Sequence to fold (226 residues):
Amino acid sequence: MTAPAIALSDVTKQFGSHVALDRLSLEISPAETAVILGPSGCGKTTLLRVIAGLEVPDRGQVLLDGVEVAASGRAIVPPHRRQLGFVFQDLALWPHLTVDGNLNFVLRAAKVPRRERLARAQKALRLVRIETLARRYPHELSGGEQQRAALARAIIGEPRILLLDEPLSSLDPELRSVLRSELAHLRRELNVTIVYVTHDREDAAALATRIIEMQAGRILAVREPH
Fold:
């Protein structure tokens, strides 16, 4: 039997007196697109950060592909060894690097041989449809182009899991609709496990294979998209 791509068991994460995750248990299957839906402050981003290893659970256990990566109070596998791609809500593109520079930074950190980097970068840019923008800096890009550049950086390491934190929240409705369709296309192309955080029900309906509703650090409901 294939292990879940992601499994959280009884995970609790607290910041001071605020309980961000409250004994949360969840399994996400390989190649599934799980959309985490809920209001601001319900624990969605903390859940992504715990999966990524950017936060350590106070209690509980996190497994990726059946391998324990974190347990109560400790990280067992560091973030850079979890084979994850992460698009942060503020995108976090390095402003002093071009789009190509952002991609190559990831490839160098992953020790990808120089002869492979160009092909990998071109493929990532082609997938998100910004091949002509490789030499531009983030401030020279539109909001939608920045989103695409952040996606390219997230996928260039060929991750097994892609974590997306409100990636379309800052865009106007028309561009949001276009990029929503592009993300659905990208999901089919990559065939990776995706965890997509949003408070937007249209995003959830368009992208999810399963919708997980959160409230106050707990899972309120799990359902199929309509």
Notes: The chain is about 30% helix and 30% strand. Helices lie at 44-52, 99-109, 114-127, 143-155, 173-190, 201-207. The chain has a mean pLDDT of 92.
